[in-house]
Amino acid sequence: MPGCFYSDPINQRPSVTILGEPTEAVHRADHLTLAAAAEDPDGHYVRFQWRAYACAGAIIAEGCDQYPFADGLLETFDFDVPIRLRDDVTPVTLLRVVLQAKDELGATARPEEELLLPVVNRAPTLVLDRSSRYSFIKDSPINVYAKVGDVDDGPAALMPLVWEVFGPATGNTSNALADLTILQDAEDPAHLQYGKVFTANVEGEWTIRVTAMDPLDGIVTVDTMITVSPGTPPCLAQVQPIVPPVGALLPLTDPTLFQVPVVVDDLDVYPPQVGDAFLGTTDFKWYVMAPGQSSHVEVAGATGNSYAIDPASYTPGDLLEVRVEIFDRDPDLLTNCVATDATCAVNTSTPSCIQRQTWRVEVR
């Protein structure tokens, strides 16, 4: 009588593949997502086991952490690339990702999948900005700001920054920068801000260059260009009394206060601005050409914005001229003004901005 033989079917091993390998360089602190693709000849359910190890050096033999920094059991594997090994000192330069798979009956994929990913240092970030309340004028303070960050090493690791100044041939670059205290943004701990006060001793094109370097020699250099101007001359914005038209005379019957209520200037203004130590005040000079005089004589002690004339000091019918000139911190501002001209505009391209005003007066 023939016999029957029975045997259990052989459970075949699954195969597994890692998908999603990055196509661009991997940096420390990057977020990565990998995926597993499995095939089981018997159609069994496959379970996954991911492990990711941080390594130093270019090859595994140079040293990986003993324990994984991340693991997972799902089809996809998300993790953040660590910055340093577990010793908190050695920078990560290589990732070793291992994927194992078993089917529901315990058959293990052979060989296990392994992915080696070189990890590169991310360069620091650096943004420059500059501002000035004084329109980038020679000898005025210009604030230059540097905002730095470093995703993998932290912004504090970039210190000290290197500041350089390049300017015109006659420019003083050795002590053009001074430290500027800046309050840090508590809501932006990923960045730190630093600043310098830049002062240019001559007008022209200047360049401020700042360099930041991280501990792994990641370097970034940024320039900012500043065009420094010589400043504009002051302008008589308002005078009293009203100046009569050319050829007409101002009748003087009562004591009269000749005054300049407003002067417009980029640095030396009138009325003076309180609370700004750098801004100055307009300088005034008053002159009178009395009957019998051929030129205007400066009035000693009259340095304010006004000068009073009393007709009682003269004889009715006398003709005289009252003149005011204004100066900013440039003492030679009116050097080229013709003495006989009733007004003077040192900037001929802006004739409406005058620095001298003359009243022709008839005492009555």
Written account of the structure:
The chain has 364 residues and is mostly beta strands. The chain folds into 3 domains: 15-120, Immunoglobulin-like (Sandwich); 125-228, Sandwich (Immunoglobulin-like), CATH 2.60.40; 235-363, Immunoglobulin-like (Sandwich). It has no helices and 25 strands. It has strands at 15-19, 26-27, 31-39, 46-55, 70-72, 76-80, 94-103, 113-120, 125-131, 141-149, 162-166, 177-180, 191-199, 204-213, 219-228, 235-240, 250-252, 256-264, 268-269, 280-281, 283-289, 297-298, 306-309, 319-327, 356-363. The strands form 7 sheets. Strands 2-8-7-4-5 form a 5-stranded mixed sheet, with no helix packed on it. The protein has a 5-stranded mixed sheet with strand order 17-25-24-21-22, with no helix packed on it. A hairpin with a 5-residue loop joins strand 14 and strand 15. It is rod-shaped and about 160 Å long. The protein starts with 14 loop residues before the first strand and ends with a strand.
Descriptive tags:
mainly beta, Immunoglobulin-like, 0% helix, rod-shaped
**CATH-defined fold name of the largest domain:** Immunoglobulin-like
Largest sheet: 5 strands, mixed
Class per helix and strand makeup: mainly beta
Provide the gyration radius in Å.
40 Å
Query: Based on DSSP secondary structure assignment, what is the total number of beta strands?
Result: 25
The CATH class of the largest domain: Mainly Beta
Order of helices and strands: EEEEEEEEEEEEEEEEEEEEEEEEE
Question: What is the count of helical runs?
Answer: 0
Which ranges are low-confidence, i.e. pLDDT below 50, for 5 or more consecutive residues? none
Average pLDDT over all residues: 93
CATH architecture of the largest domain: Sandwich
- Helical content stands at under 10%
